[in-house]
Structure formats: structure tokens, C-alpha cells
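Researcher: We're teaching a course module on how sequence relates to structure. For the next exercise, students receive a sequence and then see the predicted structure as C-alpha cells, so they can try to spot secondary structure elements on their own. Here is the exercise chain.
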Amino acid sequence: MNLDGFDEIDNYRKYFMDVNFWQPYVAVIMEKVGLSCQRVLSGVAGSYPTFIVDDHYVVKFFGKLFNGGFSYLAELNANLLLNNRQGIPAPGLVTQGKLNEDGQGWPWPFLVFEYLNGISIGQAWPYLSLCSKDEIARELGRIVRCLHSIPLSSNGYFQPKWETYRQFLEQQKSNCVANFQNNVDIPSHLLQQLESFLLPLDVLVNIEQAPHLIHADLTRDHLLGRIKDGNWVTLGIIDFSDAIVGNLFYELVALHLDLFQCDKCLLKIFLDQYGVDKDLQEDFAIRAMNVTLLHQFGAGILTDLFRRYPKLQQANTFVDLANELWGVEN
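Model: And here is the predicted structure for the students to work with:
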């Protein structure tokens, strides 16, 4: 099979992390950019083929499936903005290019990053103390504030405008009931309340405030580090392929519900360190729950939450559910 076969999902799933298949392609691009390539190992499985080269580099290819072209541009341009940015640990972007430059077929764009020799926070979480987790929340508050403070240019890929984000939320809102109605894991009495619970977009997006560059997928897989003397040492945040221009509420969905494992004490520590603007504090839990429902993976997120925490099914209303998940004032 050649790369043309990756247009089919079955082939993609079978081969996208196959080192034997990809090693010749990795060797080609490493030679093209003038870097060594003695040993190739598979990286952590995600959406795109990712490989570790000589324990020094990470090569990430972007296929046609899963909006690979958009993900490539998002990750490339986010990392260009991150370059040498103080306060935001991330692997350095070494180079970028296209595997196929003859104009025939999918170009298979790629990025080459510095390799961070660490583990994910998800792997480390069971072995960390409560004090260490508190410090992680504080550190992430500082890091995310720095990320959200990066200046955006009207001439850049990420523009300081709300239009795209609002259009996305509007589309999610119009499809929200349909996205959730066939989900057997969500209690029927909550499904009946869904449409009436959703807020107007003007409540969720304050156009008087400047939008931010957000990572949009700060899960426990995307924070790398190591454990030293029982404490977590952050090496970097990875995978900006879902990066968009938006606001803090959207950033918090993956961060709180996945990385923090719904621990509201950690969320409060994070928010205090981040320094939440007053306009975001009003009806915080209700608004955060709304954005959770409107998230790109909202239906799957809620399904996972009900499976992980069966007591959530006892919530009588979405307001109760919002307070249970997001009510930091409690």
C-alpha cells in the first residue's frame, strides 16, 4: 500500500502508526531537511502519524482525513506564535515542509519538533500528591494566561476577531439537540431540558473583550513532564492542532473535565492564578456548562462524564449538573 490508500479510514487506522510502513518516508523528509535519521520509533497514537527520530526529534505528518490540512496550519501557526515566547513551555518547532511536492495527490505536510523525553500528566497523575497537583494547577494558570496574552495580528493566521468562533458556536447550538438526542447515556429528563438551557451567544462571548489564541485540547495527554523527588516537573505542552481563536470557557472544557479530572478545587486554584476577568465570573458554572455542551466533542464528553461519574445522572436539571461540575464558588 502507498500513501494514496490513507484516504480510506480502514487503511488509515491500520497503518497510521506503523513504523515499518512510515520509516522510509521519515528518512526521506529528514534527509530533505538535513537532519539525521538512524532510529525511528512510533510516538503516542493520536489523530496523525507521529514518530520519534533518534530521541531528538518528533515528526508529525498530517493526512487528508480528520481535517489534516486545517490541523497542520493551526499547529504550524500556533507554534510560530509560541516561538521563544517566555512563560509557555513547548517543544521547539525545528522545521516544516511537504512530503509530496509534485502537486499530485495529497501533499502530506509535516512538522518536525524537538523531542521532549517525558511522560504525560495522565500517566503521572496516580503517583502525585495533592500538594503537587495543586502546584500543577497554579503553574497551568500562569502558563495559560501567558498563552492567552499572545498578541494576535489582523494579518496573521489567527486573527483577533470573534466571527469564526461565534459562527462555530452558532452552528453547534443549532445542531446541539440533534447531536445529543440519540445518546442513551444521557438521562432523558435532561435531554428534554437541553434546548431551554442553552444561552444566547452574546452571554457566552463578550465581543467587547479581545479574543485569545487557545490550545482548545489541554487534555492529560498533552502536558508532558517528569516526576522528580515526588513532584511534577513540566517539560511542555504539545499538540496545538486544535488551536483556535476563542475564550477561556472553551479552553477550560478539556483542562477541567479531562486533565483535572473534574476536581473543582484544582479548577479554583487555576482560575485564581489565571486571574479571571470579572465579566467571566458572573454565572460562571452555567456558562461553562453551556460551552461544554457546545464543544466540538460535547456529546462524547458528556457521555464519558456520565460513565465515569454515575452520580451525575442524579442531577435533576442542567443547572444542578452545571453546579456539580463547574460550581467553584461551592
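Model: If you want an answer key for the exercise: The two ends are 56 Å apart (CA to CA). DSSP finds 15 helices and ten strands in the chain.
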